[in-house]
């Protein structure tokens, strides 16, 4: 793998990075969104993509290679001239067509050579996109074929064109992890997580999360990760939180052809809108009625423009959240817009220990906004660090004030639990938490008490709490004395 990717900021598994694309002579900031261009069906001219914020696009070299007119133009003009785009261009190999139709007429050597010859900046070999829920036998056989083709791709002389190493394995986390480890050990450059579009089409965001996180476990931290087909802005924050650096969107154009209007919360049909709930130029200059009365081509183009505006607007929002250290708050806000994205968020939190490995120790204030916040990486880290601390004697852990009869007294803050008073001004103990804490927050705090008590078996502890529920108190070790101080308030 060439050293083409550098991480410049991190929040959990999400990161801001710089992807060097040597053949294009550009460095792309990630996370980035690549509009998908079907050269036979262009809705918005690629020359306009930079207006929206696009630094890269992706197109299908198999379609171009198999269309005589496009093939000749690409050979004569090169992809950049043919599409009118000066940024970086990634090309797919036809694997999508393979998944749709069962076979394609090309090989890895042929398609990589064609991609190189027409000026692609990032090429893709012919991998086998095993569908979700395929049998393990099928997934293993097709993964073996994909791995053979990645090794074959290493032997093709493509100069300074970067080459993708797709990660397959269906819905088997161990196979995805194995596939990622194999791909990372090749000389290839980028690592798309493939065959997830069927999951996203079925709103199986929890399976998407499990799939991506399994792949991430097999990849090095310097590996740029592309989530194929993640085109709806409602899941950009989740995709970034999973550690994806490149996304691609055909949705901006496909949805526009069907009079569908993208928002960060979902999709609306044009005929259901009385007002445009957006501040982009399309929505401020037109009303839904005006757009609906336009001819098909004009209506489709305007809707596609809006869809691009809202997509790149959300991408910028995600990047700012990573820089500010509050991406998880954005992910949670987006997750609660739809039950299936909430499934994806909760699957992400199932792996908080994995996220914690790359999560900065200090950032902006932690906001507790729901029971899911109790499972965030910051809480996991705090509980682990409690095991290193050694209070001695008779120790008070309290949500109230101290008491001179104890040798030490520590503060208690749900969901984190106990902490030395000297840490009260450090992240994440500066958290903004609700006065009406939910059951999950108290239970997480009780787990913190248990972690501290277990690490210090010779220390006497008293927990002074404000009306914790029985479900939380049941998690406190029996040897810890508990006192309800809520009456004192």
UniProtKB/TrEMBL annotation:
Q: Does the keyword Ligase apply?
A: no
Detail which positions bind substrate: 127, 195
State whether keyword Cell membrane applies: no
Q: Which cofactor does it need?
A: Zn(2+)
What Enzyme Commission number(s) does the record list for this chain?
A: 2.4.2.48
The taxonomy runs: Archaea, Methanobacteriati, Methanobacteriota, Stenosarchaea group, Halobacteria
What family name appears in the similarity comment?
A: Belongs to the archaeosine tRNA-ribosyltransferase family.
Q: What does this protein do?
A: Exchanges the guanine residue with 7-cyano-7-deazaguanine (preQ0) at position 15 in the dihydrouridine loop (D-loop) of archaeal tRNAs.
Top enzyme category: transferase
Q: What is this protein called?
A: tRNA-guanine(15) transglycosylase
Q: Which SUPFAM superfamilies match?
A: Pre-PUA domain, tRNA-guanine transglycosylase
Q: Which residues are named in the active-site annotation?
A: 92
The record's cofactor note says: Binds 1 zinc ion per subunit.
A single GO CC term for this protein reads: cytoplasm
Q: Where does this protein act, in terms of pathway?
A: tRNA modification; archaeosine-tRNA biosynthesis
Task: Note the coiled coil stretches, chain numbering.
Answer: none
């Amino acid at each position: 793998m060439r050293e083409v990717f550098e991480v410049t900021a991190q929040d959990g598994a999400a990161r801001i990075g710089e992807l060097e694309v040597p053949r294009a002579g550009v460095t792309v900031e990630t996370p980035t969104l690549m509009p998908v261009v079907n050269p036979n069906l262009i809705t918005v001219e690629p020359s306009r993509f930079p207006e929206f914020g696009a630094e890269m696009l992706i197109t299908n070299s198999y379609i171009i290679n198999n269309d005589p007119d496009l093939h000749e133009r690409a050979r004569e003009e090169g992809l950049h001239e043919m599409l009118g785009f000066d940024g970086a261009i990634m090309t797919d190999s036809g694997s999508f067509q393979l998944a749709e139709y069962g076979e394609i007429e090309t090989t890895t050597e042929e398609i990589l050579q064609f991609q190189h010859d027409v000026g692609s900046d990032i090429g893709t070999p012919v991998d086998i996109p095993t569908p979700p829920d395929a049998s393990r036998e099928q997934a293993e056989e097709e993964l073996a074929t994909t791995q053979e083709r990645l090794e074959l791709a290493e032997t093709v002389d493509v100069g300074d064109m970067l080459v993708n190493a797709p990660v397959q394995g269906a819905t088997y986390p161990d196979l995805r992890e194995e596939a990622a480890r194999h791909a990372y050990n090749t000389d290839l450059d980028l690592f798309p997580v493939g065959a997830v579009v069927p999951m996203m089409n079925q709103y199986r965001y929890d399976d998407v999360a499990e799939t991506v996180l399994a792949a991430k476990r097999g990849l090095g931290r310097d590996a740029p990760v592309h989530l194929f087909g993640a085109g709806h802005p409602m899941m950009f924050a989740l995709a970034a939180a999973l550690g994806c650096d490149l996304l691609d969107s055909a949705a901006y154009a496909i949805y526009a052809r069907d009079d569908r209007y993208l928002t960060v919360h979902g999709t609306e049909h044009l005929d259901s809108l009385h007002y445009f709930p957006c501040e982009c130029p399309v929505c401020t200059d037109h009303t839904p009625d005006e757009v609906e009365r336009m001819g098909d081509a004009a209506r489709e183009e305007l809707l596609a423009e809006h869809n691009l505006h809202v997509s790149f607007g959300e991408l910028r929002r995600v990047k700012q959240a990573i820089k500010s250290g509050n991406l998880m708050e954005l992910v949670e806000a987006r997750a609660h817009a739809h039950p299936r994205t909430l499934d994806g968020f909760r699957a992400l939190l199932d792996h908080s220990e994995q996220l914690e490995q790359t999560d900065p120790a200090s950032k902006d204030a932690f906001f507790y906004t729901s029971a899911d916040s109790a499972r965030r990486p910051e809480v996991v880290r705090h509980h682990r660090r409690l095991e290193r601390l050694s209070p001695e004697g008779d120790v008070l852990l309290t949500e109230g004030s101290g008491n001179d009869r104890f040798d030490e007294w520590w503060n208690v803050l749900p969901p984190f639990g106990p902490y030395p008073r000297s840490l009260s001004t450090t992240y994440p103990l500066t958290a903004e938490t609700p006065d009406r804490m939910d059951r999950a927050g108290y239970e997480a705090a009780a787990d913190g008490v248990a972690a501290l008590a277990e690490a210090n078996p010779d220390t006497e502890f008293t927990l002074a709490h404000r009306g914790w529920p029985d479900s939380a108190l049941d998690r406190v070790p029996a040897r810890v004395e508990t006192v309800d101080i809520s009456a004192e308030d």
